[in-house]
Amino acid sequence: MTLRQMFDPSAVAVVGASTTEGKIGYEAMANATEFDGPVYPVNPSSDGRLFGEAFVASVTDIDDDVDLALCCVPAPATPDVLQECGEAGVGAAVIYAGGFAEAGEEGERLQAAVVETADQYDISLLGPNTSGFVVPETDLLCSFASGAEKLPPGNTAVVAQSGGVAHALAFQSRRQGRGVSAMVGLGNRANVGFTETIEYFDGDERTDAIVLHVEGTDDGRALLEACRASDTPVVAYKVGQSDVGEFAESHTGALTGDHELYTAGFAQYGVPTVDATDALLDAAAALGNSPAPDGPNVGVVTAQAGPGIIITDRIQRAGGFLPELTPETRDRVDDILPGVTYTSNPVDTGRPMPAFGDVVTAVAEDDAVDIVLVYELYEQAMGFPVESLDGLAERVDKPVLFATDGIEEDMAEDESALADVGVPVFETPERAADAAAVLARYARMQGSAEGTEVVADD
């Protein structure tokens, strides 16, 4: 089984396509037609055209090599549809309908029948009980949700057990100006789950970070092994610290398991965990747009003391360290800005100034520092030290993060300039500190992940 036919198809069939606006078959077809490739509406009860494409009665009637089928039919009709897909040589399918393993014994039997057919014909199944996936770079919009066409391309692959969470993360990423390389809602994980998607996106040239939303899984060992084998950084949000077992199982058939065992397993296998969706995306921005940190030591440069104190406190509570800067660096900072407010770590300049970028460079070049975090409230007369930060992370081979706040329209151009030179930007001191702490934990975990044996299995 390969996921290429799912995420990089040559042609798509929408089975159960409908002319009735509001039905999944209509909305899925509306989104699918954005794809720059053949898209075929399939429905034996319809004729004429839909979005300019002629209806066909069955995927077996399509005179083309169709890689992907979007199944917009009720659960009881799905086995027959999948049988036709197999006979037509379709290699991947998305099953939107619910009423499978999450719905009791009869649903479990129905899902087992679907998997048996998929195994017979070597079909990759996303779902059942999913809202699909989106690959913005190629306008592959295999979701029935509105707004999918407005998701911008980025370098983070979102893999969520819940289709609702997958879409929420993708929309959040759009608001943050970041975008996604792909957004995937796994649903019931009939035969495509975390392991398969992690392996695929690890090899995807558009993806520099993978984020996971995990309710539970019946094969924790395979999940963790896939995370450890991934060269692409993985961050996880494991939900279920309180008792949500019955709710989760009714949602995607998830076995939530022991939360602490999951988080311990992730830590041992080199995967930082977070506790919020925005923290998940912030961690991905830090990991995906930065060199891998060599250690957990964070050098902080702030133009305002108050936010700097918040950052310092939060980093240390979340697993990072603030090392003493070398005497050479402190002397260098004193030479750049005599009488600077505070020249230890964090370095506090008191306010933005023309030499602020030189101070950041000095801290970044300190051998005691593995990660650099800069905070500067926007002052229009000063702007941001874009020229100093351009290429700095690559030159010192360390992550360089930047946090700010101000009037959006005033700082939009400078903020965009930072993004253009690859500097991750955060909107609050807390979010920036949490992202730096994830980098710190990631560095420690990567150093101790090899040879791990403790695994979260359900």
UniProtKB/TrEMBL annotation:
Keywords per UniProt: ATP-binding, Ligase, Nucleotide-binding
Pfam family, one: CoA_binding_2
InterPro entries referenced in this protein's UniProt entry, alphabetically: Acyl-CoA_Synth/Transferase (IPR051538), CoA-bd (IPR003781), NAD(P)-bd_dom_sf (IPR036291), Succ_CoA_lig_flav_dom (IPR032875), Succinyl-CoA_synth-like (IPR016102)
Residue ranges constituting the CoA-binding domain according to the UniProt record: 6-100
Assigned EC number: 6.2.1.13
Matching SUPFAM superfamilies: NAD(P)-binding Rossmann-fold domains, Succinyl-CoA synthetase domains
SMART domains: CoA_binding
Listed GO MF terms: acetate-CoA ligase (ADP-forming) activity; ATP binding
Reactions catalysed: acetate + ATP + CoA = acetyl-CoA + ADP + phosphate
UniProt-listed PANTHER family: 3-HYDROXYPROPIONATE--COA LIGASE [ADP-FORMING], ACETATE--COA LIGASE [ADP-FORMING]
Protein name: acetate--CoA ligase (ADP-forming)
